[in-house]
Q: What sequence folds into this?
């Protein structure tokens, strides 16, 4: 019994923002029973993952131990916490537990991926407790930017853990449960071994602002508008969507939700009772008949996503609706780092249409869903844990949170993805490093981030691609070699088509090549590639990717 | 004579930030004489221009009229104003005029591109005047974030123009000339027909801050550091580099400049007398012998550029130097939109090394080089022009600047790249739209942005590439078709190699294909491509780019 250990292992979300996946385990080394907290996605970009559809944690480590997983617990319904359940369920096979609103979203995801939605069990908030192996787990309500976000209270044989999930300390979040210091003091009273704590906003020095603080600003802005009003925000921020809709109604406008995610989130909130009421809405067809000054569109695409409603509206038309000179477009959102180009593109397109754009630059129309530095301190002080493990953030966030803990005399550890932390004793210590990684959803296939597939795509994008075709008959070249170019300039230094120069150089080489080279596919391919790259370098100053196709007739 | 017209035509920089190039012309329609103001570059990104080295304006319109160009005037030495002179000089062939510091940089650029540096003529500041065709042009000193930035005073037969270039109103820029309201009142007194005016910071509501306001903050920060200090900023901001170096010296540190651009800019400033003195510096080799607490590195790469000194230091080592726990890294710069990912990558790498990072989030360590909204109003009021033409900015900036002018009762016009504005009369009017575009420097070749070369690279990056190889002998398939894959998953739905499934499907098709198809290269290629895409879609959920290579032996 003394050889049992309590471990914490982030497989995603620690050392990055997004793709959250945390493992807790208890038992003898190598025989621990596990629970998994969150299975989220992150989003690809052209720089590092062109053509990829979604990114999620490589769960190979868990898959190899799937018979030891007693449950998957989802803290809330943001994509970076729940988005990968459809893609990973078959590998893990463990039951999924979460609260009603998140369950509604999660079941739809499983269904879309052909998994029986009954894999998800709906759990009520604390004090309801799920027994998962040696763990007792409860969902503790906490405010965030989505309904029913929850921390997890995890009782283990060696003490209580609290995994905050994403959170802020909002006394009036409008939808969902407020920050409840009485409840949190109560659950902390027995003593908390470790607080595993969101780090996202550790660099924000002022206390966070309440969701409710925005309503007067938003109402004032919409009241001042003459023509059509279009507002976008994160669809999952149901409180914000409601605030926007109510402000529109108060200004005498009909409300139209545009974009699938926007409709789905409001529907899920209503179905699960999270939202008791929502202003009446009209469909996109009916919206076309409403005078522009009496209409407000609530649209998806606050991050500049190319296919979302806002991008399509900015680009010309969406569901028959067009924007016009004097319309007001509100970004009730912040731009997540990395999405700036897409958002700016939309703002400029709106500018070309004569649409007036208001964003969160003034701080009046958006608040963050994460705890700022002083709020983190309130959490530390309320829970008064033996250990703090900074979680959910890039390395700089985890380290800053760690330094904050140290400055307060709290024990803490920086644990990035793959760092297995032993929490059994009084001090956290690194038990081992586990190989972790990213899995790409590419079309309908899952590939490893390091499989080389995407690396080859990036190379073709940077360098272009030359295909060299050679036919040999009884080890003698039959005709001349033939090149196809893709993604390369047609003409270089010599002002003669590059393809002609390449073919000539390759032909000259084949004429000179000895039988030994011509008989050896690997050697021949290597030489042809070298010549192609060298000639290209001198002609166009680039070394392309080269595929050599040797056909032998004999 | 009454048919003469005065025109303004932006070919770059209006409707975007970067790649500045403006044309002024005077004369009978179609026979105007021209001057060109600035020939700048903009930088490629993976999203829209993978593999491209530099982007500059398509100067085809000018090239077709090169015998009517009387001079190229460069306002200042930022890359987005001077970067393209080497690449475009041979197309335009016109003499280049600029002030000493900019000339120093410009000549080096021409030299690197094999152009005789004597093409650049050094001009003193106003009141020296260059006669260029019917224009009289002077360089009017104005503060910015680089030495000797200048507005252009352009006297035309129908009135005076002022082209601001990039500017701010800094009473104490530390290096270079201060904003001089007396001088500007003097040059405006005769009456100014049109002010062509920087719009970059029109959304910044507070008056701009002086370069000199940073010195105490920077000095305080560096004094507080125990270990090595590393600071990065835009190398061309010589005043900032000097402030940083002086703060380092004041704290008893040896100063080492790292990165070619940093050394070059300081050298150019000293050579041209712009900088009278600069603290003594030591070379990278000597820096290795200095105790870390007595050393300060001034490095390039504030925008996260992968090859710059800061990226290499963050990544491990640069010129023998490594960073350590407790070092202080200062970004005395802002991150230009679009560069966030690269900068954040470096900050996280520094965090992993235990280096403490300070950026401009607090506003203490960086000021902008552009005029904010109230400063633009001061400029409008000082010059009191008949017309304001917003320049240098994305569409949203130009439009906001235009709205600002309208609100003050000033005549104004939004003119994006390609909009030829007739300034002859009392009101600006659009004369015509000229086709404009971007030229890519790709390796050593110049290609048009719309040539399709880069589009094909993007497609390969998103979709992967399949090469299909078929050999026909007297219109009969010889052997089986053969595929090569690049950038595609090896295995799809069927759990069999994708290449095998593709080859089998193509083989089946060839067996069934009639002589008519087999004899027709275009038809055969089309069918083989369709099958490849269809099979790939069902196997891996993606439709790849396909190159079909048909070899006929007869």
A:
């Amino acid at each position: 019994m003394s050889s049992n250990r309590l471990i914490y292992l982030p497989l995603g979300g620690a050392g990055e923002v997004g793709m959250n996946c945390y493992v807790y385990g208890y038992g003898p080394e190598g025989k621990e029973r596990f629970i998994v907290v969150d299975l989220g996605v992150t989003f690809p970009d052209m720089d590092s993952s062109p053509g990829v559809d979604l990114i999620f944690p490589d769960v190979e480590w868990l898959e190899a131990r799937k018979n030891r997983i007693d449950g998957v617990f989802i803290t809330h319904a943001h994509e970076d916490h729940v988005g990968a359940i459809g893609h990973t369920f078959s590998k893990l096979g463990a039951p999924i537990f979460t609260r009603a609103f998140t369950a509604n979203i999660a079941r739809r995801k499983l269904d879309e991926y052909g998994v029986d939605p009954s894999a998800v069990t709906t759990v009520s908030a604390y004090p309801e407790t799920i027994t998962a192996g040696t763990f007792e787990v409860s969902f503790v309500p906490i405010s965030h930017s989505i309904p029913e976000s929850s921390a997890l209270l995890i009782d283990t044989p060696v003490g209580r853990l609290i995994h905050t999930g994403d959170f802020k300390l909002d006394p009036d979040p409008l939808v969902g449960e407020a920050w409840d210091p009485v409840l949190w003091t109560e659950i902390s009273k027995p003593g908390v071994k470790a607080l595993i704590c969101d780090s996202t906003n550790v660099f924000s020095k002022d206390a966070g602002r309440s969701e409710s603080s925005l309503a007067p600003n938003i109402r004032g802005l919409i009241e001042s508008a003459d023509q059509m009003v279009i507002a976008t925000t994160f669809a999952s921020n149901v409180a914000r969507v409601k605030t926007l809709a109510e402000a529109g109604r108060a200004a005498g406008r009909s409300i139209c939700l545009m974009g699938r995610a926007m409709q789905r989130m409001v529907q899920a909130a209503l179905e699960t009772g999270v939202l008791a009421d929502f202003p009446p809405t009209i469909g996109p067809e009916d919206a076309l008949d409403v005078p522009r000054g009496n209409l407000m569109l609530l649209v998806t695409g606050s991050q500049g996503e190319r296919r979302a409603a806002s991008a399509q509206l900015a680009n010309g038309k969406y569901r028959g609706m067009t924007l016009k000179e004097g319309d007001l477009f509100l970004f009730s959102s912040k731009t997540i780092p990395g999405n700036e180009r897409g958002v700016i593109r939309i703002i400029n397109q709106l500018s070309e249409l004569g649409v007036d754009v208001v964003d969160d630059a003034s701080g009046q129309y958006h608040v963050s869903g994460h705890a700022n530095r002083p709020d983190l301190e309130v959490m530390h002080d309320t829970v008064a844990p033996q250990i703090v493990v900074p979680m959910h953030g890039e390395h700089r966030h985890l380290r800053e949170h760690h330094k904050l803990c140290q400055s307060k005399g709290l024990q803490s550890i920086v644990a990035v993805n793959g760092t297995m932390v032993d929490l059994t004793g009084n001090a956290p210590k690194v038990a081992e490093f586990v190989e972790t990684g990213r899995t790409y959803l590419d079309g309908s296939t899952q590939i490893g981030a390091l499989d080389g597939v995407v690396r080859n795509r990036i190379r073709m994008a940077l360098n272009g691609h030359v295909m060299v075709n050679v036919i040999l008959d009884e080890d003698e070249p039959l005709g001349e070699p033939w090149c196809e170019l893709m993604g390369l300039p047609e003409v270089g230094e010599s002002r003669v088509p590059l393809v002609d120069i390449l073919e000539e150089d390759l032909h000259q080489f084949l004429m000179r090549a000895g039988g030994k080279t011509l008989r050896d596919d690997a050697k021949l391919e290597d030489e042809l590639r070298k010549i192609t790259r060298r000639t290209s370098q001198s002609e166009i100053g680039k070394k392309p990717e080269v595929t050599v196709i040797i056909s032998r007739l004999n």
